[in-house]
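Form P-L/3: holo structure prediction, ligand magnesium ion.
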Amino acid sequence: MRLVSYWAGAGLEAGFEDGGRVLSARSVSPRTDVPITVRALLQEGVDLREMMSVADTLLKDDDLLAGRLGEIRLGPPVPDPDKVICLGQNYADHVAEMANTRPDVPNLFTKFRNCLIGTGDAIRLPRSSRQVDYEGELAVVIGRTCRQVSEREALGHVAGYTVINDVSARDLQLRTSQYTVGKAADTFGPMGPGIVPAFAIPDPQVLQLATYLNGEQMQSGNTSAMLFSVAEAISFISEVITLEPGDILATGTPAGVGYKRVPPRFLQPGDLIEVEVERVGRLSNPVIQG
Ligand code: MG
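OUTPUT (holo model):
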């Protein structure tokens, strides 16, 4: 079961999805009759295991459903995070293909809310780039405020995991020493389909990851190969940046990006780019000219 954000009217609200069936989080937590967001749920410190246990029963009742996937459109699992922090060069094979040197400490950059779209939403190619690339990654969703947490404590602050595509305009990214303009363009952070709770994934360092372009596998890796683990990264970041519920951490991509294929393969209008992380889900996005 996943914690999801889905479109209800003009806004996104929190729900639970299992087997394509979607239940409003309001059905599980009836003390509120106004829509509640995933971020607000996490800020409240709800017990996801308890909520999902109740949701599991309610999801079986057709009359209680908000709808089914297909008729319901998902948004990014957390559409309004305070922070989206990304790890660059966190897999040795990707460091090698980019001809970079292995970082001594986590290499951080950021995206913003304007980047975030859900599964099924279109990545828009900006007219100022000819080199838009994909990067399939595991994403971490913070569940509890963490400041100066140790590696040992770090995973206890994670709400769950989702999939992110760290879409990157290589020509814009590599034109200066700062990544931001190439990494933080509108729609450059597809995320989803939903959040698999941390209790269902006790070890995030054993997950197979793959990226498919129009059905053809372009990337394949395992989170065991990360240079800095999820726990190390959270501990490192939290030393100086307080992480809040709903904050997103993208954990880096393995080798196989389009920029370093021979010949290079950049995203084109009409493409379908998909990222799958074992036990977390498959994120699927069409590509259009922006
Ligand atoms: Mg990346």
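COMMENT: The chain has two domains: 2-68, 84-289.
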